[in-house]
Amino acid sequence: MDIKIHHSWSISSKLWLAITVLILAVLGGLGLAITWLFGDFYLQQKLDSLGTEAAEISAQLATVPSWSARLKLLETFKLTSGTQLVLLDPKGNILVISDTNTSQGPRSTIDGYLKGSGGALFGGWSRNLRPSDFFAEEYLVRVLTGQTIKIKAFPVDGGGQTMLLAATPVGTKPVQGVVLLGSSPIPIQESIATFRWLILYASLIAVFLAAVVSLFFARQVTRPLALMQRGATRMAKGNFLPIQGVTSDDELGELAEALNSMGESLENHMEWLSQEKNLLQGIVESISDAVVMLSSDGIILYANDTAKALWQENETELQERKAQIINFLQTMNRPNTEVEKFAVLTLGMQVLQVVMAPMSEEEGIRGHVAVLRDITASLRSEKARREFLASVTHELRTPLHLIQGYLEAIQDDVIPENQRGEYVELVLDEAKRLARLVTDLQDINWLERGQSLQRVSLDLDSFMNDIEQRFQGRAQELGINFEVSKGSGELFADPDRLLQVFMNLLDNAMGHTPRGKSVRVLIMDDESQVRLAIQDEGEGIPKEALPFIFDRFFRVNKARSRKDGGMGLGLAIVRQIVEAHGGTIKVESDMGKGTIFWITLPRMVVCPITL
To answer: Domain named Histidine kinase: which ranges (predicted)?
Structure first.
């Protein structure tokens, strides 16, 4: 398996590498150009020197008429070091060979040449070569026409060695001979090679120095960029400290100032967004209504604590209830709908009013926000209000109709005079019952309006004795055993309202207790509270009626007359008074065994309670 390794190059490394490569390319190209031009220039200069020297020798030889004089004249010539002279006749035959490598003068024949130079090296070659070995017939033809040639030639019979040649004619029309000068290019090539090495070494030293300088320059140039890069990375992570260390007045300094300004703006904007987020979150969390945010595909993005409480119980999610809410919201969350939608969701005994509004953006609708308001209490309150008005109307209408009917009958002489006194008594009873109804309604209204209780310190023993004296006579009339426990200590309460509680409860208890049975008032107290119990041995209350026993106008036995069963306001008033004292009341009952009302009252109230 091939493993690819990616190298991360910094901008400093890239800049240093680019400068180094550029310098290397420039110096390398310059060195190659210089050595190439120098080599050609040196060779051409050598050829020009050979041509000039051959022309001078030819001109001097042309001034001498005989060959013997010419040969003596050749002995006086001093050739340039490394140069060999060959004198040819017009047919190309060698007349004289002379070079600077022999200590003797010119040789006039080939035999003499072989004897005089046998075994000697010429110009560094491994065997003896003479210029005539490189002088081809075509060159001879050109010289015989009067031309002077300067060439770099290869041996006529082949080979890899070369020689620099210069040939010029002796005399004109006709040409009497040819002066041929030859020199080996090896010394020049060695000089060129040495020069090339010098260029190479100089280039390497220059490249090294340039690399060091460019590295320092690259780091100095890219250091501000590195500082800004680290600063930008730090800003991306939420740290908006200003970038330090960039002091230049050029574009990099301006960029650093721009980044610092941007960081400061971002920090201020982030602080503002954080404040706005906290404010919005605080508002949403403090809303008593449930708030749910849905994405465009119906997924819950956010829900406040009130919303979570709809599908949670003791931090445990009720999956069925949550699924029902989500399905309902997804049904309302129809695409391409940009208007608010209203609906009502019923969850068992709970009724929720749902309002859903779209979250619009430039690209379209991002999602929806749903507000779920629990209207169960308001619906129940409205129902209770209607039932209360209906009950009050009914309770008032009945005695009023009776009073009106009896009075009209008396007025119209329908009732005989001897019976009118009895009917007047009936009218008076209905009027008294109507007055009691109005008084109870006033009491409920007084308690619900939050009127303050007139609290005083009560002696429990004295209060319980008062209760016993008030109801002992009625108990004897009904043939009921009435027992009252003795209390101790004091209770901070409103005596009139507390007496009203006992009167309502004991009236109900004695009214539902058969003759020979008992009604008891029990008291259990401690340092902080007093627990009272009113117990009877009557017929009891059905279990299905217990949750509604303290509701207004509720009567357990609908068949009982209002005269016997009351109007259903007494227990409602009892609960209002007990709760106004900061206490609680509850009821327990068994059919055929009796009923007991438990009242718990605090002994002292630090902050008086107002209703």
So the answer is: 391-605
Contact 91, 218 (CB under 8 A): no
Amino acid identity, position 88: L
SS (H, E, C) 168-205: EEECCCCCCEEEEEEECCHHHHHHHHHHHHHHHHHHHH
Among 123, 124, 131, 122, which Cα is nearest to 166's? 131
The rounded distance, in Å, linking the Cα atoms of 417 and 411 is: 11
How far apart are the C-alpha atoms of 85 and 99, rounded to whole Å?
6
Report residue 557: phi and psi, to 5°.
Answer: -105, 100
φ and ψ at 32, to 5 degrees?
-65, -40
Rounded distance between C-alpha atoms, residue 261 and residue 255, angstroms: 10
Measured CA to CA, the distance from residue 199 to residue 196 in angstroms comes to 5
Tell whether the model's pLDDT for residue 418 goes beyond 50: yes
Distance CA 599, CA 587 (A): 9
Cα–Cα distance for residue pair 519/477, rounded to 1 Å: 14
CA angle 99, 104, 105 (to 5 degrees): 70
Decide: 495 and 463 in contact? Cβ < 8 Å: yes
Place of tokens 């010119």: 106
What's the whole-number average pLDDT of the chain? 77
The C-alpha atoms of residue 60 and residue 312 are separated, in whole angstroms, by 128
Q: Taking the model in full, what pTM does it have?
A: 0.41
Query: From CA 284, how far away is CA 299, in angstroms rounded?
Result: 19
Cis, bond preceding 174 (omega within 30 deg of 0): yes
pLDDT in tens, 310-369: 887 776 777 788 888 888 887 776 655 555 677 888 877 788 888 888 877 655 557 788
Strands 316-317, 312-313: pairing is antiparallel
The whole-angstrom separation of Cα 241 and Cα 465 is 81
Residues with Cβ within 8 Å of 410's Cβ and at least 6 positions away in sequence, in order, are 420, 423, 424
Question: What pLDDT, on a 0 to 100 scale, did the predictor assign at position 125?
Answer: 40
Longest dimension (CA), the chain: 206
Distances from the Cα of 289 to the Cαs of 324, 373, 578, 598, in angstroms?
Answer: 18, 5, 31, 36
Q: What DSSP line would sit under 542-561, residue for residue?
A: -GGGGGGTTSTT--S-TTS-
Is the pLDDT reported for residue 102 higher than 50?
no
Segment 60-85 mean pLDDT: 80
- How far from chain centre, in Å, is Cα 534? 66
